[in-house]
Amino acid sequence: MGEPLAEIPFLRALGARLVRAQDGCAEIALELAPEHQNSLGMAHGGVVMTLLDVAMARAGRTVVDREETQPMVAVTVEMKTSFLRPAVGRLLARGRVLHRSATMAYCEAELFDGKDHLVAKSLGTFKFLRRK
Question: How far apart are CA 132 and CA 89, in angstroms?
Fold first, then answer.
């Protein structure tokens, strides 16, 4: 399902995996487990937003990492999410960069369930910082 996101403790605990990240795009996958669910048996909104956030940030990093000699991080400045339907089963977030400047990226991401239904969509702004 992809490589673990081991450098981020929260994502490691969540079990999210990086499927791909290149050329301004990124995909993050998660097999929904009982600990990810809300009381209705679907993905908790925080899980959905986390997957969308990470997909956008990783997409943003792909456009600066190839230009920098020192690794960069992309931190969320703002994020808007629309929830369209319950998120269940295997989830896949697809993020992409819509616009970037020297210090920021404006991105979008969509989250799909195992039946390829669109379950949520986000727009976000990310600031690039040097990793210490």
Answer: 36
pTM of the model: 0.92
Which tokens hold the place of 56?
């956008």
pLDDT in tens, the chain (132 residues): 455 577 788 998 999 999 999 999 999 999 999 999 999 999 999 999 999 999 999 999 999 866 666 677 899 999 999 999 999 999 999 999 999 998 999 999 999 999 999 999 999 999 999 877
d(Cα 128, Cα 74) in Å, to the nearest integer? Answer: 5
Q: Is 56 helix (H, G, I), strand (E, B) or coil?
A: helix
CA distances in angstroms from 124 to 55, 89, 115, listed in the order given: 11, 25, 25
Give dist(CA 118, CA 131) in Å, integer.
Answer: 33
- Cβ atoms within 10 Å of 63's Cβ, excluding its own: 19
How buried is residue 65: exposed, middle or buried, by Cβ count under 10 Å (0-12/13-18/19+)?
Answer: middle
